[in-house]
Amino acid sequence: MIGPYRVCSFLGEANLRKDADYISFTGDFGFSGWLPEKKVIKNYLAHESSLLSNFRLNVINLEYMLRGFSGCQLDRQIDTLMIDIFKTAGYGLIGCANNHALDHGVDGIHYNTVQLTEANLAMIGTRDCPVYPCYTDGKKVAIFALTDDADEEDQNSPILGMNQADLALLQQKIADAHFRIAFVHLGSMSSFPSVHERLQTDKLMEIGADLVICTGSHFIKGLTTQRGKVVAYGIGNHMFSFVDSDTEPIGMHVVAGFEGGDLSQLFAIPFHNTIRQGKTGPLDERTFALFKRTLLERSTMDPNKYFSDPRSLKNLSGYLKDFRVSKLKKVKARHITYAAQVLFHHYPITAVSGSLLGLLFFVLLIRWSLFALIQL
User: Fold this and answer.
1) What is the pTM for the complete model shown?
2) For the segment 292-327, what is each residue's pLDDT rounded down to a tens digit?
3) What dotted CATH number matches 8-301?
4) Which of 138, 212, 228, 357 sits at 20 to 30 Å (Cα–Cα) from 149?
């Protein structure tokens, strides 16, 4: 344990070493259109500021960007609160690469850069701030952030993404580091890693990442070893005002410990994150046992787990019910392939029958087209 927080170790001991330097990472954070009560924030900070004071550097994903430039008084109040939380809790590095980063356009990125800089908070994930160097025992640990997708597009995006040009830029920037940590916004509709997620984390390792920590899913996903390196596929929400049926009430800090510049410890510290209900802070023994069991179950690289996961089927069903023609431009080939495999795993007879009928219709359509051409 670290104070009242229970710790789950993946590498090394589950405690603090006197001569080690620690870097913590936590997930999606932000409030949109809603201001938490002061007593709730006070209770949350009482726990977390004490915990994070043990670590050299604390990194968080700013999922809902600051938007006080809108002119709305509530937005300005929310900005003030979020920056105060960062500073009081002990966060020093803000990840700004995620699917909501461009919600307020390029002007929004500029505004966030100014506000965070004035608050003496470093940031990563933008073209102007691609990498943050942290030194331990004289050796450089390079931390960088990027996102797999963005809800809003910009041709000359200031946010770093999983494209060839940005990966090449990051590879150059982190080349001289002793250890490299990728803080990437991925996420998927399943509790288990998808084939796409594994391919994306492979790309990060190809450019030099020694440890990959993923945000994006509003629930805990597993930790696995890939190419001999650890990937945390989902660390859940931190404190996030958006809640849906996929949101789970527990998030986690992933903490990397370094001695002599080398990774010697890696552990998770779970916590309650239901800020809307005012339930934050460490887990009790029973809830911690459930967290460990869930984390172990989800720490697998079996691709069938993704397709057979009830969460995948539920989210696919929800997507189809809410489908609009305007969404077609965002549909990719892998989405169709994944949907077919999800249906096959849950309804094999229906899926096979549907595929055969679809094939028959396609063959008949070609035949009718050829017949029509001959007639002409």
Assistant:
1) 0.90
2) 999 999 999 888 888 888 887 777 677 667 766 666
3) 3.60.21.10
4) 228
